[in-house]
Amino acid sequence: MFTGLIAHVGRVATLETDPRGGARVTVEAATAIAEGVTPKDSIAVDGVCLTLVSNDARTLVFDVVPETLVRSTLGMLRPGTPVNVELSMRLGDRLGGHFVYGHVDGVGVIASKATEGQGHRLIVDAPPQLDPYLVEKGYVAIDGVSLTIASVRNGRLEIALIPETSSRTSLGGKVAGDRVNLEIDPIARYAIGAAQQYAQANDATTDELAWAYEI
Predict the structure, then answer these.
(1) How far apart are CA 15 and CA 10, in angstroms?
(2) Which of 30, 47, 50, 70 has its CA 20 to 30 A from that of 130?
(3) What confidence tens digit (pLDDT) does each residue in 10-46 have?
(4) How far apart are CA 60 and CA 54, in angstroms?
(5) % residues pLDDT > 70 (the chain)
(6) Would strands 156-161 and 145-153 be described as parallel, antiparallel, or unpaired?
(7) The pLDDT of residue 135 is above 70
(8) Helix, coil or strand: residue 206
């Protein structure tokens, strides 16, 4: 489990495809390694939870299966690409962002990024299947970064990106047309899933669901 608060930005060293499918990716992230890592650790790379295969003082090595390549942007990585790196939470850590699983729900496309005050207004086109889970003032993880949704309009997420986030994550270098990993807030996932199960079991109306879940 992760928080979406990015402490390290690494760079892709290599991405080697496997003839059986999948790939092996090597990421340069010396500052993350200095915090203490061990093979089999869970580490998020651009919001994707991966298992560490091996490491030295400078690089992290991961195996990426075909399913992960299909569902995320990892297959588009190239040597030199900056990536957000987050080590998994430890018991007792502060939770400053929100619970992030590293399970990508869809790939979005940056529609625009414009200067707004000290920061930027980031607009992302999200896959339509995520619409029910994205709400104004709710959470979303974009490339593993915990962010608050400023507004949702016609399937587009709007994010007020503060300077701190731009400078400390790979989002600062993103431009229109770039693809990003999206993970919905797990609370929204479970709330809507429970409501759907209740409706199917009880043939409930919208008003009854609102009452049942105190919406």
Answers:
(1) 14
(2) 50
(3) 999 999 998 889 999 999 999 999 999 999 999 999 9
(4) 6
(5) 89
(6) antiparallel
(7) yes
(8) helix
8 Å CB contact between 169 and 9: yes
Residue 186 has pLDDT above 90, yes or no: no
Q: What is the secondary structure of 146-194 as a DSSP string? A: EEEEEEEETTEEEEEE-HHHHHHSGGGG--TT-EEEEEE-HHHHHHHHH
Domain of residue 180, residue span = 106-184
Mark whether 131 and 165 lie in a shared domain.
yes
CA distances from 153 to 26, 114, 126, 128, 205 (A): 37, 17, 11, 12, 26
Which pLDDT score, from 0 to 100, does residue 206 have?
56
The string over 57-85, giving b where at least 16 C-beta atoms fall within 10 Å of a residue's C-beta and e elsewhere, is: eebbbbebeeebbebbbbbebeeebbbbb
What is the enclosing helix (H) or strand (E) of 33? helix 30-34
Average pLDDT over residues 138-143: 96
